[in-house]
Amino acid sequence: MEKYIAKLGDSIDLKKTADSGQCFRWKETEEGTFRVTAFDRVRYFTQIDSHTISIDCGKDEYNTVWKSYLDADTNYDGIIAKIDPHDSFLTKAGEFGRGIRILRQDPLETLITFIISQRKNIPAIKSCVEKLCQAAGSFIGEFDGEQVFAFPSLVELSGLSCQKCGGEFCSYKKAGLDSCSLGYRMPYIQETVSRLLMNPDLIEYLCQLDDEALYEELLGFKGVGKKVANCTALFGFHRLDFFPIDVWIKRVIDEVYGGTFDDRQYSPYAGVIQQYMFYYGRSKGI
């Protein structure tokens, strides 16, 4: 397959983006190269320099799919430049995280993924998501010696059967897997899928809402609390002003800022600032 060389107007760092806690289907296959599974396809992204990557696709596919996915038109370096120079921690975090971009991911996939994410670390989330795709998603092909499946559609998700939830069989065991590792999250996923199936235009409706209304609607899904709603809004609906607070962000706020951090000072890009804080805090073990 041909390779498209994408030169962005500002920084992009694939490794940092992959490790920033927003996406769970990026796999580093060799240094600087990531196998990205999204939108029912698999592509390889390779870092060339701080502003340039290659993708094994043509120009048309890049312009219609991956340019938006990478949020190529947003100036992230400009956001870093607006960090308060008197805030030494955030100044360091912004520079350390330079190149992170908030991906424009599929809203359904992001909602389900962050429901799964509750009380799980990143490796466990990745494992659960891959199991879900194998149990219910469509087979894409074999890559790097692995069978890769697309994230399930709503209809495919509705076909998931769990004996612990009253199903006749276990979809995971039928797919050759030992278990789903979802526990109490499985009923949340099933109820979310059922609601969306009964309201086929709901995702599109959510996309049209303002931030406050979107947040309230997301909280209406079973198992979605403040953190999951914030993460879904930020990473699934690309609302860059949402500021999710997880254990790492709470630790930074408590230990660095004395328990209070005014994220509104960075509106409308508070979510971008959150990513720099998360990535720096987690990487440095704060």
UniProtKB/TrEMBL annotation:
Could you say which EC number(s) this protein's record lists? 4.2.99.18
Q: Would I find Transcription among this entry's keywords?
A: no
- Annotated keywords: DNA damage, DNA repair, Glycosidase, Hydrolase, Lyase, Multifunctional enzyme
What Gene3D superfamilies does this protein map onto? 3.30.310.260, Helix-hairpin-Helix base-excision DNA repair enzymes (C-terminal), Hypothetical protein, domain 2
**SUPFAM superfamilies of this UniProt entry?**
DNA-glycosylase (SSF48150), TATA-box binding protein-like (SSF55945)
Q: Which reaction does it catalyse?
A: 2'-deoxyribonucleotide-(2'-deoxyribose 5'-phosphate)-2'-deoxyribonucleotide-DNA = a 3'-end 2'-deoxyribonucleotide-(2,3-dehydro-2,3-deoxyribose 5'-phosphate)-DNA + a 5'-end 5'-phospho-2'-deoxyribonucleoside-DNA + H(+)
* Domain annotation HhH-GPD: ranges: 116-282
| Molecular function in Gene Ontology | class I DNA-(apurinic or apyrimidinic site) endonuclease activity; damaged DNA binding; oxidized purine nucleobase lesion DNA N-glycosylase activity
Please report the name of this protein according to its UniProt entry.
Answer: DNA-(apurinic or apyrimidinic site) lyase
Native organism: Candidatus Weimeria bifida
Biological classification of the source = Bacteria, Bacillati, Bacillota, Clostridia, Lachnospirales
